[in-house]
Every structure is written in structure tokens, then in C-alpha cells.
Amino acid sequence: MMNRGNDSFINVYIEHHSPSHSNVVYHRMISRFINEQTAVLPMQMGNEITWMILQKDSKKADDHAKEIQHFIGRYCNSFMPRKVLFTGEQTPFEKVGAQHFPEGYFIFVSPLTVSEKVWDMLNLWIRLDEKRPAITSSDTEHSTFTLRNQFQEQVAMEQWKEAYGTLETIRLGNYVSDDNYLFLKMQWLAAQHRWDDIWYSKDYESITQLDYIPARIQQMLLRAAYTVLAPSDLTEDFDKSLELFTESRYRLGALIHKSVSSEEESICRLKAYNAYLESDQIGLQRLLTLVQDSTSIAIIQFLLGQLTPQPEKSDLTLENRVLTAFQLQHFEQAYQDLIKSSLTPFKTKYLCKIATMTDASIVYEEAKLAWDALASEEQQTLLRDPECRADVMLVQARMNAITIAPQVPSNPIVSRSEEVTWHRWFAQFLSNTDDIEQGQALLREMDTTRGGMVWTDSVLTLLAEQFAEIAMLPLHGSARSLLETALSMFLTELMDPAHFPKDSALSLYDYCSELILAHSKKNQASMTYFQKLSEGIVYLDFNLAHTQFERTVAWFNLSPSKMVLPYLQAALELYFDYDIPQQRLVDLWNHWSGALGDSLQTLESVQLNGWYELGRLMGADANLLVRLSQSFHNHEEHTEDILATLSPQKIAIFTLREHTARRAVEKLGPRNPSHRYVICTDDALTAEAKSHVKSSDIVVIVTTCLSHAIFYGIQPYLRNNVVYPRSSGTTGILVAIEEYLNNLS
After folding, report:
1. Which of 146, 233, 597, 640 has its CB surrounded by the most CB atoms within 10 Å?
2. Cα-flanking dihedrals φ and ψ of residue 456, to 5°?
3. What's the pLDDT score for residue 318?
4. Residue 409: pLDDT above 50?
């Protein structure tokens, strides 16, 4: 497919380096380059010619360079090609070359006297290359690793349709087991907060009957189950909630007992209703010590008041109680009995078994502590026990992966007795950036269902140090491609809403944005990651706004394009509220507006208006504003305003960036004065916040600028009236509301 974006490189090349005597092969090479095919172009320097092999796809460039060497190597000073970089300095050609080929290009150098022979051989290579069978997407052999990584990236970028397409490819091609496909499907639904779709899915009971369910999938399933009870809990109609839970309890299977020691409000409430049905007074009293919010306390006290006290079963020994609970898959009860008991091989054995059945981090930690406290002879006995040997080894593998060695070895190959975690992967990469095969193998071994992220403070600090070191490395070719793949996988985990933004990860976010700036291609995925990191950094510490802004200026130092404009717009809106010198912001706005010119007219109306309003607020160039204003008014004349015709609505916006939300309301208000807007900036789940969720027709949740307490606290009360902006800026909020209204119509 022709790409006119390549014209800038070709124009500069022809102006400065076009050969004095061209031929048919040369013109075919120019045509191939414009059509994004591998091209070989000459540059004469005295009595020598440098033959540049130009291809942006690094793997294809490697493969074609190896092919071409067999055609022209014999005529060149060296049979092997050499990879070089455009410096980005001194000459126009170097500057445009650095923009188009940041990873460099291969060259051969030959005497001028053999140039005709080289052209003849290149002509032969072209003829053979053009006869090469075309590989279409349907013919491509997708690996499980590639497809799962693609799916995770699409989910992270909120590309729901594309992610579903990838999920279907995975299902139809049998790339993963049926269980893992269902886990991915639940992840896809949960990322969109489609809790009703999860709960009423025909797959729900199939999953809850599985022996092993990853911890994060357990949480998704239980959150979905609680949405049935949330409305009656909100009105404190606990009798109704108990009735609803009793009717639907069968669907949960053993799942309710697999989530061990969870302190999440919705899960604790489910466990409380379940404990009542099982007459578990001790369980209810234990839950009462875990919860802190008033509603959960009221529920448990209500249930305790309804419960008839049961006589204690003192005739059972500890071992019998644990064995009975384990056989019934009442893992929470078995775990609670074990941690109160003294150390024995029996305790260690069943802690290990419960850990692998529940995937609960706290049980893994207790199991490892118990294992370490055993005598060597007792450890060997457990390792010979066929009932628990595999469980013990899994616990060791998980906990060894989490542990940080006091001193990193010179060649830290990840042991097969350890799970692959991110800090260990990056340690391996730093030890030998050229070991591509090992790096790829470890990425494939990573358990993407559970994830490779360890959220302890020490590991987060180590990752920040590793990223600072990698950002300074001069990476090219395969090593850089490997890092890009790993970084994309890593960032989807780092920005999981359950953990992002996280105070203890601030330093990691800081160095992560530096690493993206140094070694990532500027594509849609990396733009999304960089934007979210920037919002997280300034949300956690506004003193870092100036540093992050300088990175942002460097990040957007590229040829202006409409595809990138929304990301720049979100960045400018972010820094407009953070005391960045206004002229710096205006310079960026003026440059991009001037460069894009009339092409801005083709933007969506809300995006164009947002860009104009941003320029107006900052005091941008008056002539550019006039041109944009005319374009915007032309848009308005041909656009139906759905908001203006909508019946009166209450719209609640949940965000901690009050200024941006107020600017959004100022734009929305005049379009229909009958609508009512409220902005909730609470950082804890208050009665007022719950009331807004319950009474609003449309709920806007700015996830990148919201406390975890609010985000997860209001989830159970949400219906299908929720809007999730992709950025926390004014335009992000307006675009999200507009998309929601368009979908309604």
C-alpha cells in the first residue's frame, strides 16, 4: 500500500544524493520504497558507493539484508552487511532519516567501478522478491504468545471490538485451553465493567465449578455476583439482599470459599451472607473484624442478630477439621484453622495445597514461612509425599520468584524452580541484551493469567532502578524489539486499574516514562501508555509536573499528524492546570495547528471544539483561532445535537481534577439547561457519593484520576449508564459523553 508519508524522505534523498546516472532498477527501488517494500538506494562518496537497505520492519530488514548479501556481497568491500544509524544531526538527510528509521539500516559499500554489476544483481533480487508468495493475515501462523499479548494490549487501550476479534481468533484456533479462553473472556468483560454480562453469562457456572481459578478472575466473578445484592444493600433492605443471595447461591459453587482473606467490601458482604446460610457465627465475627465501612458492619450485625447460635463441635481434632473443610473445598475455614495452629508438617502440607487451589498471595506467604521453619528432614519427607510434592514445589517457585537476591549474579538466568516475574525478566535482559532467544523464551513462560508483577515496595524500587539503567543503554535491532514486546506486556499489568496509580510505584512510573521515551516506537499503544503514566505521575506528585512536561515535549517532537493530535491535546489539558509556563503550551498548540492547517476541519466536532477552546484559554495565535472558529461553526451547522433533544438528565462526574470537569460542564450546560450536573471529588466512599451513583442517569468515572476507594466502592451500584473517559482532561470527558449519547441513539 502506498504511503505518502515516505515522500519526505525520498524528496530529501533525491535532492541531496540521487545518482547522476539513473536506470530502471533505481526507479523501481524508489517505487518500492514509496510502497513500503524493502528498497536499496545508493549514495556515492568519492570512488565508492554506499548501498542503503531501507525497511522499517526490523525483522524484515534483517532477513532481506541476509538475502541481499548473497547477491551483491562478492562485489563489496565486505561480504557481510553493517548496521548504522542516522545521527539526526548536521544535514537535512540525517534528520529525516532519523525520523523514518530510528532503529537504523543496513549498508554495503562497493567500488564505483562495479556499480553496474551490483545493479544487475539487485534487479535479479527484485524479480525473485516480487515472486515471493504474499503472506496474508489469514495465512499467518499466530502463536499463542503473540495473540495473548495482542489481546492484552487491545484491552489496555480500550479497543473492545479489536480485542473481541483477537479473542475469537484464539477460540477458533484452539490456541489456549477452554478454561483459559473463559478466563480471557471474563477479563474482557470486566475491563468494560460489564458485571451484569458476567453474572448472567452461561459460562459463569462453568467457571465456578473449576478446581483452579486465578485470584484475579475470582475477584471479577465475585464482584459480578454482588451486583445482584448491591441495590438492596444500598437502601439497607438486608432481608431482600439475603433473599436474593439465597436464590442465587448455587451459582457460586465453591468459588465463595476460594477467595481467602479478601478485604474488598463487596466480597466480604457476599461471604457474610454465605456464612449466615452455613450458620457460621465464627466466620461472621471474623468478618466483622475485617470490614471498616458502615454498610458492611450493619449487614454483619443484622445477620448475627438473625442467627441462632450453634453448639461448638469440640469433638473434632484440628487435623479432622482441616481435612473436612478441605474436602468440602471450604478453603477459607481450613486456612483460618491452620494459621492458628502450631507448626507441623501437616500444617505446611495443607497450607501449600490451599495456596495452589486458591491462588491467594497471603496463603502462599504463610505456606513459605511454614516451609522455611521446618527441619530439613521434615522438608524432605514432604517432598517425597506424592499428595503434596507438586504443591510444595509450586509454592517454592512462586515465592522464590518474589524474593530479591541480596546480590544480583553476573549472569542471572531465571531458574526453572522460579516463576518468571518482571523484575527477574529485566535482570536477565540487563545481564545480556543480545540473548534474544532466552528473553523470548522467558516471556512465553510468564503466566499472563496471573501476571508477572510483584507489588512489594522492594520489587517496585528494584524495577525503577532497572528501568533507569535500561533507558541509558544504546539498544538497536532485535534487542530493542524484544524490549518493546516486553514493555508492552509489562505496561498492561502496571496500569491495571486495581493498582494504578499506586503511591509506592511513583518512582517506577517516573523511570518507566523515561524508558518509553528512550526505546519505544511512537505508535497508538505507546502513546496511550505515556499519556496514562503522565496523568498518574502528576496526580501522585504535582511537583513532578515540570519534569514530566519536558519529557512530553520530547515525546511530541515529531511530524504533526491528526492521529497523534488527541494525545497531545490530553497532555496540554493536563499541564494547563499544573503551573507550566503558558507560553510553552502555546508554542506546541500553535506549531501543531499551523502544521495541520485545514486538515483539522476533518476532526470530529467535539474534538475540534476542544482543541479550539484549549487554544483560546491559553491565548494562542489569533489568526489560527479565527480559522479554527470558522471550521467549528461549519461543523455545528451540519451536526445534530443529541444532548439538546434529550429529556432532563442528572449527570454525575467522578474525578479528582475538579477544574477540568467544571470546564466540561460549562461546555455542556448551555446545550440543554434542563440537565443537572454534579461533580464528585470525594476520595473516599461517602454517603453522598453513593447517592449520586444511585440517582444519576449518566455516571462519568475518570479512572485515571480517582482514588481506589471510590473506584471500587461505587462499582457494585453502577448500572449500564456509565461513561469511562480515556483521559482525565476536559475533551476526554466531552468525547466520552458524546460517544455514549451516540450509542444511545
Report:
1. 233
2. -75, 155
3. 83
4. no
**Helix ranges, 294-344 (H):** 294-306, 318-327, 331-339
pLDDT mean over 312-338: 84
CB within 8 Å of 315: residues ≥ 6 apart: none
Q: What is the pLDDT of residues 176-211, one digit of tens each?
A: 888 889 999 999 999 888 899 999 999 999 999 888
Neighbouring residues of 115: CB distance < 8 A, sequence distance ≥ 6: 42, 49
| 3-state DSSP assignment of residue 508 | helix
pLDDT surpassing 80 at residue 634: no
Residue 2's pLDDT is what?
A: 43
Which of 168, 159, 169, 163 lies closest to 151, judged by CA?
A: 163
Determine whether 122 is exposed, middle or buried from the number of CB atoms within 10 Å of its CB (0-12, 13-18, 19+): buried
Going 564 to 566 to 568 to 570, the CA torsion angle's sign is negative
Picking from 304, 385, 402, 309, the residue whose alpha carbon sits closest to that of residue 348 is 385
Task: Give yes or no for a contact between 42 and 19, defined as CB atoms under 8 angstroms apart.
Answer: yes
Q: Which of 193, 218, 223 is nearest to 208 (CA)?
A: 218
Handedness of CA 228, 685, 292, 365 (dihedral sign): positive
H-type helices in 522-564, by residue range? 524-540, 545-555
| Cβ partners under 8 Å of residue 309, min gap 6 | 281
Confidence bin at 140 (pLDDT 50/70/90): very low
Do residues 534 and 574 lie in contact, with contact meaning Cβ atoms separated by under 8 Å? Answer: yes
Q: How far apart, in whole angstroms, are the C-alpha atoms of residue 51 and residue 62? A: 15
Element (H, E) at 45: strand 39-45
Select from 251, 451, 260, 447 the least CA-distant residue to 358.
Answer: 260
Q: Which of 398, 258, 395, 386 is nearest to 330 (CA)?
A: 258
pTM exceeding 0.85: no
Q: Which three cell numbers stand for residue 128?
A: 525473485
Q: Find cell 475533551 and name the residue.
A: 731
On the question of pLDDT at 727 being above 90, the answer is no
Task: Evaluate whether 606 touches 740 at the Cβ level (below 8 Å).
Answer: no
**DSSP code for 601:** G
Edge to edge, what strands does the sheet with 105-111 contain? Answer: 39-45, 48-54, 105-111, 82-84
Q: Tell me the pLDDT of the chain averaged across its residues.
A: 85
What is the enclosing helix (H) or strand (E) of 679? strand 676-680
Tell me if the bond preceding 501 is cis, omega within 30° of 0: yes
Q: Phi and psi of 308, rounded to 5°?
A: -85, 120
Handedness of CA 84, 88, 91, 96 (dihedral sign): positive
Predicted pLDDT at 450:
61
Average of per-residue pLDDT across 278-307: 90
Q: Do residues 107 and 122 make contact, with C-beta atoms less than 8 angstroms apart?
A: no
Q: What is the pLDDT of residue 359?
A: 84
585/127: higher pLDDT: 585
Looking at 541-657, list the stretches that DSSP marks H as alpha helix, in order from N- to C-terminal side: 545-555, 565-576, 582-596, 605-618, 622-637, 642-645
